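Weekly modeling sync, notes
Attendees: S.R. (lead), two postdocs, one rotation student

Agenda item 3: backlog of single-chain predictions. S.R. asked that every request posted to the team notebook include the full sequence so nobody has to chase files. The rotation student volunteered to paste the first one in as an example of the format we agreed on. Action items at the bottom.

Example entry:
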Amino acid sequence: MEEHFLHFNVGDIALKMAVAVGIGMLIGLERNWSHKEAGIRTFSIVSLIGMLSAQINESIVVAGLIGILLLVLLSNIRSFLAERNTEITTSAAMIACYICGVLIGLGHIFTPVAATIIITMLLAWKTELSRFAGGLETSEIRSAIIMGLIGFVIYPLLPNRYIDPWQLFNPCDAWISIIAIAGIGFLNYIFLKVFSSKGLYLGAVFGGLINSTATIAEMTTRVKEAGTPSRITMLSSIINISMFTRNMVLAAIFVPLSLTATLLPLLAMSCMAALWIWRDYHASKKFEETEVVIKLTSPISGKKIVSFGLLFILIQVGGTLITRALGGSGMIVTGFFGGLVSSASTTAAAATMAMHGQISASIAGSTAIISSMSSAMIDFPIVWKNIKDKKLVKSFTLKLTSVLIIGVTAVTLDHVFNISEYLIKMLH
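Predicted structure, as returned to the notebook:
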């Protein structure tokens, strides 16, 4: 027997045992709730076996895995002979639980814990995922394939340098932005597909993260058809909060320091919008939900990728030239007009320029804010055109205007007092 086996560190082993039992209990609890034979005790022991096996040697780990496979096999044979359905999903979860236990025994914490959370989510979301898979369309499967293609096949082949003598266009930058925008949009499209039937308001959350303009147009039509146009003000606020959040995340992905410029203004606008949501909620005395599916097209297709790319290139090249001529204010102007078309592409372009030192992180943040506000302004003509109740339109206009005024005030104060620049210097 190996000597180190006799002298384990007590504190280290106690921590590993606690984590191993914890992840087993998490998966086991879900299996208990789903009325499966293998539950909290079985999964906890399986995970603990994996952890203890890793403390001895590789041979014991392999022997333990063989034992778990035999246990799974015997359990399924028993179910088959009893004319019950075989527990394929539970069996897979048990094997994964053992492997997570082994990883814990080897000293890993994040990987097995994260894997356990994902496994538990997949098990718990059986109904939603089954509905999602059953409702998949050919275009959506094609979108997933395109997402993998642009992320793992095309991107590694692109040159990570400027290919023109004026230092205006870097193919790698444009493609990373396409991946970021399309990836965020596609992930939220999946959530929208799975959860939008839970209610109109939840659909507004995920829809705003994908395409705020398309979502507000869809929502306006929905409430008009349902005869409840009064809900459009609350829905507009929810959509804009989601859009603000998405743009802030996009800016932070490329230039984390841009958060110093985006956080306070976007938070201020979100708080103002949330205040109107709270007021509308209490005014109506109830938070009505409607079983409805919000239909938005997938953000990934050949046409949309080309439009993302061309818009990004146009904004980046145009913004660079205008910035060289007019300074930082030129990029702010570009951000306003770019936001009317796509605040996501505009935010990504500004953040990429900041990443290469063409503009400051604070200017990139301000551009994200301006593009977000100009994107929110699109709500005005959409609602004005479709909602005929003058009193309601007036109320909507007042509320959205107040949100925009808060944003303008925050950006103005930032530029007058150089708040974001000061914070950036402190963080450096």
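Discussion: group reviewed the output briefly. Residues 3-124 form one domain.
Action items: rotation student to repeat for the remaining queue; S.R. to check formatting next week.
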